[in-house]
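Proteins fold reproducibly. Next comes a concrete instance:

***
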Amino acid sequence: SMSLQSIETSHGAPDTAQAMSVSKTDPFGEGVPFGDPSWYGKFNSPYYTASHVAFRAKVRDFVEREIFPHTHEWDEKKSLPLDLYKKTYEAGILPGVVGAPWAGGLGHKLSIQPPENFDYFHELIILDEFGRCGSGGVLWGLLEGVHIGLPPVLNFGSEDLRYRVGLPVLKGEGTICLCITEPYAGSDVANIRCAATKSACGTYYTVTGEKKWITNGVWADFFTVAVRTGGPGMGGISLLVIEKTFKGVECKRMDCMGVWASGTSFVTFDEVKVPIANLIGKENAGFGYVMHNFNHERWGFVVQANRFARVCYEEAFLYAHKRRTFGKKLIEHPVIRAKLADMIRQIDATHHQMENITYQMCTMPKTESAKALAGITALAKVQSTKVFEYCAREAAQIFGGASYVRGGQGEKVERLYRDVRAYAIPGGSEEIMMDLGVRQAMKEWENVVRNQGSKM
C-alpha cells in the first residue's frame, strides 16, 4: 500500500513503481496499436504477474493452433467437434472459466495443474484471448456452457454433485448448460413457470416445462435448471441438475441470427423424474444462486464483447492500410481515421473499467462483492455491448461491400455484426441492466441518508 507522502517525496519513477507493485512486461502479440490491451504493449500495469504473462502465451498459442484454422468452418456448420472440450482441458484452460478458486476448488482432483496463484485475471485472459477468433458462436460453443452452467454446481452443490457433475465437465468429458430463460420469462427470472413437483415419498421431483435460447443445449449432458418448487415469485425457485439420459428430456436446435456454433436450443422437460440428490443447495433458495451467478456471467460478457469490439477495430485498421480508394489508402482519409479514433477511445476505456471490476473480484470478500459489484457489472455489460455494436457497424462501413460477404476479407466483421444481439440481449438485456445499475445506486443512497439521519 502506498501513502500520499511516499508519492510526494519520490521523484524517481523506480521507487514509486516499486511502492505500487507495478509489473513491467515485455511486448506481446502482433503489435497493432490498440489491437490488444495496453499491457501487451509498452504500458505498465498493477494487475499482472509473471504467472499471467506465461498463461497468456499458452492460451494464445492454443487458440491460434486449435481454434483459428477452423473458426469459419465450425460457424458455418453450426457446431464444433466435442473432442475440443478434452483438448482444452488438457491444455490447462477449461477449468479456468468457472471463476476463482481454480476449478471451483476441485483442482486437487484433476491431473492438470493451474497457473501459479490463479485469479480472475487468468480467467479474463482466457476469455479475451479466445475472443480473438472473432466468433461468439465458437467461443460460446466451447466455453459458455461451462462458464455459466457449472459455477452454481461448484459453488452451491453437494460434494456428491460437485464430483459427479463437476469433474467430468471440468475434464471436458461431459458438457453442461444453464437453463433459466423460458418462452414466458427471461429477464423476469422471478416469474419462471417450469414446475418441479416433489414426490409423496420425497425421493424425486417431477419436472415439466420449457426452456428457450439455451446455449449448448443440443449437446449438453447436464442441464442446470431453474424450476418452480414453491409458491409464486423469487421465493419459490430451486436449481436442479437434470441429466440428458433422464426420460422426457428433449432438445431442438434453434436457428438464430448469430452465435451459430453455440448450439442455441429449445429444451422441453416432459414429466422428467429427477432424484432429490440432484437439487443444488437448498429447496426454494435457487433465486439467490441464480443472482450470484449473474455477476460472473455478465463480467464474462464484458470481456468477450470488448474483445469483439477490438477485433472489429483491428480488422478495420489493417484493412484501411491495404485498401485504396480515390488514389490513396483508406487510412489517409480523415473520415476513416475519425471512425477508428471513436472505436479506440471506447474500447480502451471499457477495458480499464473491466480490469477495475476484475481487481475488485480478486480483492473483495465474496460475501461483499456479490452486492457491491452487481450494479457496476450490469452497467459495464451495457457499456461493452454498446461499444461492440458501434465498432461492428463502423468496421462494416470501413470494409464496405467486403463486410457483406460471408467469408473472405470481411469474414470476422460480417460474423460479429450478427453476434451483437447475442451479447446485448441475453445475460440481462441492456434495458434491464441500466435499470438495475441505477436502482442499486438508489438503494445505496437510501442507506447513506438513513445512516446520516440516525447520527443526527
Remarks:
- Residues 1-12 have pLDDT under 50 and may be disordered.
- Strands lie at 176-179, 195-198, 204-214, 222-228, 237-243, 249-253, 265-275, 279-280, 324-325, 328-329.
- DSSP finds 15 helices and ten strands in the chain.
